[in-house]
Amino acid sequence: QMTAADIGAALDIERDVYGDTPWDRFVFLSELQKVRSRLYVVAVNMAGRVVGFVGTSFRGAEAHITNLAVASDYQHHGLGKTLLEAMIGVARAHNDTRMTLEVRTDNTNAQQLYRSLGFRDGHIKRNYYASTHQDALDMRLELSPARAEMENGKA
């Protein structure tokens, strides 16, 4: 589980991956204090270096991925998928029925990963990312088995 001591590493990963830090130290601290509705998990390599993290907000029957990033030298090895699968498992254990997230419209690698896990495209959120004015694609995953089958045309 992420602690305040991990925030510096998370910010470094964001700078590495995004070229900026969409969140600052204060936002991470604020999120970590919401222990009843948020969960942040870090991935640490054998040397003890934080190499990825994922955060999720739980409200009602919906889980929302707030942040997911993997250090560039650890990408394309399944770590992002593992982090996301862990959060999907937590959401299912909480009996959540849906998981949502936003992803930059130009981040096709991440979109492919999300689709491979069953996420479906939603609508475009124009100028979603304040610092860059980039658009985001809203994506959702139905977690209840019956609903997921209906969405996939199997019911």
Keywords:
155 residues; six-stranded mixed β-sheet; 6 strands; alpha+beta; 34% helix; 5 helices
Compile the SSE list and pairings.
Elements: H1 7-18, H2 25-33, E1 38-44, E2 50-59, E3 62-70, H3 79-93, E4 98-104, H4 108-116, E5 120-129, E6 134-142, H5 145-151
Parallel strand pairs: 3-4
Antiparallel strand pairs: 1-2, 2-3, 4-6, 5-6
What is the mean predicted local confidence, pLDDT?
91
* Subunit arrangement of the protein: single chain
Largest sheet: 6 strands, mixed
Strand content: 25-35%
CA-based shape: globular
The helix-strand sequence is HHEEEHEHEEH
Distance between the termini: 37 Å
Secondary structure category: alpha+beta
Radius of gyration over C-alpha positions, nearest whole angstrom: 15 Å
Q: Which runs of at least 5 residues are low in confidence (pLDDT < 50)? A: none
Strands of the biggest beta sheet: in what spatial order?
Answer: 1-2-3-4-6-5
What is the number of helical segments per DSSP (H or I, 4+ residues)? 5
Q: Tell me the helix content.
A: 25-40%
- DSSP, total strands: 6
Characterization of this structure:
The chain is of the alpha+beta class. The protein is 34% helix and 34% strand. It is built from five helices and six strands. Strand 2 and strand 3 form a beta hairpin. The longest helix has 15 residues. It is globular. The mean pLDDT is 91.
